[in-house]
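Take one record.
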Amino acid sequence: MATKKTTNVVAGKSSSKDVSAFIESLAKLPVSTKPSARLVFALDATLSRAATWDKASQIQAEMFSETTNLGGLAMQLSYYRGFNEFYCSVFHTNTQSLLRDMTQVQCMGGYTQIARIFKQALQTHKQQPLKGVVFIGDACEEDVDKLCNLAGQLGLYKIPVFIFHEGRSAPVERVFRDIARLSGGAYCPFDANSANQLKELLTAVAVFASGGRKALTDLSKTKGESVKLLTQQLK
């Protein structure tokens, strides 16, 4: 099991300049009032991810925009950080409310709590059916067998887990790939410099949640190679 490296990065929030620019782009987006797909958007908000948290916040507009014509998307923000702190939001149906949630978050040091994300998703699904779980993280400090068991349960309920792995840890990659496979989802690596790739991949997941495999296949014809690889994994 991999141990997360300690960093001296100072916990940070989105700058006012970034937020203002993003809000301006949000104002131009249509709002779906009757979303047909529910998706959990889960993040590791521990200290090592402070540098890329802003990037994750700024790509939400693209996800909502791409799914509007497919019936819309309702997204639940979930994250862990600090000492046993876990947060799960209501389902957001527009970028403005989701943005408000994300820009209030500060990354804090702590251990991973991926199992809590999966358990919460299973509980939520029993009340409000989910189309998938997106997880963005860089480490795993938990019992791998328990995580794989939860991933298998998600797979039985047809809730694929889409894991976007930041970093190059081989042990963590093996765990993340197993989780994606057992749940019927997909694994994709990315780094802090590949914001456009992450935007395309997350958009692809949102399109899959809203329109299924056909919509994703259509999207892959116009997007980069990474989206095609994600589509192939789902097949």
Summary: The first strand starts at residue 37 and ends at 44. The radius of gyration is 16 Å. The beta strands are 37-44, 73-81, 85-92, 132-137, 161-166, 186-190. The CA atoms of residues 113 and 146 lie 12 Å apart.
